Amino acid sequence: MTTRRQFLGGAAAATGIAFCGCAMLDAARAQQPPGRQRLPVSVNGKRVKTIDVHAHCLFHEAENLMGDDNTAFKSPVRGAPEAFITLEERLRAMDAMAVDMEVLSINPFWYHKDRDLAGEIVKVQNEKLAELCGSKPDRFAAFASLALQYPDLAVQQLETAVKKQGLRGAAIGGNVAGEEFADPKFHPVWAKAEELGAVLFIHPQSPQELAKRLKGNGWLANTVGLPTETSIALSHLIFEGTLDRFPDLKVISAHGGGYLPSYADRSDHACFVNPSGCDPNITLKKKPTEYLKQLYFDALVFTPEALRHLAAEVGPSQIMLGSDHPYPWEQHPVDAIMATTTLSDEEKLAILGGNAARLFGIGA
Fold it and tell me: What backbone phi and psi angles, to 5 degrees, belong to 319?
């Protein structure tokens, strides 16, 4: 008899993992309203492997390591329980969303931890991610966790994750315990990522220095705080010359890059209007807005008009499917791409999966 198994782990291996049978897949498809996209997804008769680059998971083994300081695992947010993956349930949900593959990530909650604990958390998570991806390589890929507060350790972790565990890169926050990614102390990590061809996925966390102002109705810590944090992180990478130093660095930012692509042209005028606000020792190789075209963005921007504008600013080749699953921000991400009539069929195919397949080296 097939048994259900959560990825709770320890020494448990892939044996005992429940796989989603044909009957369950058929049932999931049958529940979808008429007109909703279903697997396999096609655009004008051309099949595409849909790849969601923004999907999350958690592991109880890491929660146990945190002891009483486990608030990161006790979220009241809808979808949080499903972050602890039960395989057949996750596959059924992906089928209902018309998603062939998820690239999983874990938002960093360990940047304030000491070296030993942070190292153990990362070790456990990367092992569990590799196990999960190995159990269903056609459905899952993953970003490794890194103890970025210890850059030398992060370099080792990234190399192990990519070379030995088959992970596709690393998920990072919007800063490292208040320190910007552009700080030279992190250069060895970006150099290793560039050397390995590893993809970095920036997923922000709300800026703590704004916590007081973001209190109140509307969950502003998330709705305003997260896109603000991403905009700051990307702007530092641009203006501090980090992207010039590492021109082949592959960076995806969540939530459509926050606010930056929506008002990027202001960045092109800043140093002209106020030269004293810019470092004369840093000479960028191109206009700030042009760096957006070497970065990547998920398509989690909610409306066809927002996606049209994002594509106009960064180029359709830089955008990839993203849902934030299992958190229900966008429960039908493929439908959202299909509904954007300003995109050509080829651009839809690229955003739905072609761009990610190229970036990650994922086959059809």
Answer: -115, 140
